[in-house]
């Protein structure tokens, strides 16, 4: 029987798609990274976000001790850790660092491979296929991180198939919908029972345009219709506080959950509500009594830019 446990996710307060999968004696840790945004709405992370990040990293570390395999889909830092202890003594599949990898991800990959290559059995993941007594493990060819040929690079999806019961779980990380027709065709071909992927980044809609968001929504709807799968939709989509309204076209299928919903816990969209957190904790200025100002009186008008910088500085050190 396949057991799938989201360990950290945007619906759980951090940027992550870290997941633990267990079937028989096969235990896999997928994308063991978590981060928080340095700046959102021109504001630093809240205390709640820092606390959520600590809890997420603790969960990832704890499940790493149980896993005998680690899979990393790509080299964005919310999807892996440099810490060799995560990989030590395990079978490790990492995105091929020499195939469809941009310069920044290539540099990170070089650091990671150097750090772990003497600690584990290390293989490029792209297109790899292995069978154990419990499962069949299949890694995809590189799939677009959103649209094809994007500067964000490519990711590798992992399919875990229970050999006894035939259940199929696909972890497709940052395909963002998917926006790529290649990724859509691949995911339909895999015929998942449970699919975990990043939803369209609706919080960036004003930057990338509505057409791309609509493409991701319709693509996911076609995958659900073609396969009948259940979907854990999280990550980029959950950075928009109104994500359910924008993604109503897929939500109405009744097949979609966030990682928090899958776990049966309350959503904590901490980044999406960062501005609300700071607004709730800023002290309201004392009321100003109306009086006539003489030319020599100092101004009673608050310098809002200076106050904003002070609030950020206090928030960063709190």
User: Looking at this structure, what is the CATH superfamily?
Assistant: Ribonuclease Z/Hydroxyacylglutathione hydrolase-like
Largest beta-sheet characterization: 7 strands, mixed
Distance between the termini: 45 Å
Quaternary: single chain
Spell the H/E element sequence.
EEEHEEHEEEEEEEHEHHEHHEHHH
Determine the strand fraction and express it as a percent band. Answer: 15-25%
By secondary-structure content and strand pairing, the structural class works out as alpha/beta
Helical fraction:
25-40%
CATH class membership:
Alpha Beta
Overall mean confidence score, pLDDT: 89
Count of the separate structural domains: 1
Walk across the major sheet and give the strand order. Answer: 7-8-11-12-13-14-15
CATH domain topology = Metallo-beta-lactamase, Chain A
Computed Rg: 22 Å
User: Can you tell me the residue ranges where pLDDT is under 50 for at least 5 consecutive residues?
Assistant: 290-318
- Could you say what the CATH architecture is? 4-Layer Sandwich
How many strands in all? 15
What does this structure look like?
The protein has 318 residues and is of the alpha/beta class. The protein has one domain (3-276): 4-Layer Sandwich (Metallo-beta-lactamase, Chain A). It is 32% helix and 19% strand. The chain has a 7-stranded mixed beta sheet. Strands 1-2-3-4-5-6 form a 6-stranded mixed beta sheet. It has a two-stranded antiparallel ribbon with strand order 9-10. Strand 5 (91-94), helix 2 (103-116) and strand 6 (121-124) form a beta-alpha-beta unit. The model is unreliable at 290-318 (pLDDT under 50).
């Amino acid at each position: 029987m396949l057991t799938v446990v989201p360990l950290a996710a945007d619906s759980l307060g951090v940027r992550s798609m870290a997941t633990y999968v267990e079937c028989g004696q096969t235990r896999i840790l997928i994308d063991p990274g978590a981060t928080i945004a340095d700046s959102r709405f021109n504001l630093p992370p809240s205390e709640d976000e820092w606390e959520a990040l600590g809890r997420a990293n603790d969960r990832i570390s704890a499940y790493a001790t149980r896993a005998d395999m680690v899979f990393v889909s790509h080299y964005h830092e919310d999807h892996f850790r440099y810490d060799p202890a995560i990989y030590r003594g395990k079978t490790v599949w990492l995105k091929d660092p020499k195939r469809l990898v941009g310069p920044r991800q290539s540099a990170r990959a070089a650091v990671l491979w150097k750090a772990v290559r003497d600690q584990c059995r290390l293989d490029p993941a792209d297109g790899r296929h292995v069978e154990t007594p419990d499962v069949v493990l299949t890694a995809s060819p590189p799939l677009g991180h959103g649209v094809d040929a994007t500067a964000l690079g490519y990711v590798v999806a992992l399919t875990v198939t229970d050999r006894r019961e035939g259940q199929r779980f696909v972890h497709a990380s940052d395909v963002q919908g998917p926006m790529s027709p290649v990724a859509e065709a691949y995911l339909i071909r895999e015929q998942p029972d449970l699919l975990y992927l990043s939803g369209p980044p609706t919080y960036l809609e004003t930057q990338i345009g509505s057409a791309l968001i609509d493409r991701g929504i319709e693509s996911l709807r076609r995958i659900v219709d073609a396969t009948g799968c259940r979907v854990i939709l999280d990550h980029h989509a959950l950075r928009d506080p109104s994500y359910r309204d924008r993604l109503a076209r897929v939500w109405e299928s009744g097949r979609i959950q966030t990682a928090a919903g899958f776990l049966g816990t309350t959503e904590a969209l901490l980044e999406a509500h960062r501005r609300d957190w700071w607004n709730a904790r800023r002290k309201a200025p004392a009321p100003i009594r109306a009086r006539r100002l003489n030319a020599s009186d100092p101004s009673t008008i608050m310098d809002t830019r200076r106050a904003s910088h002070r609030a950020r500085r206090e928030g960063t050190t709190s």
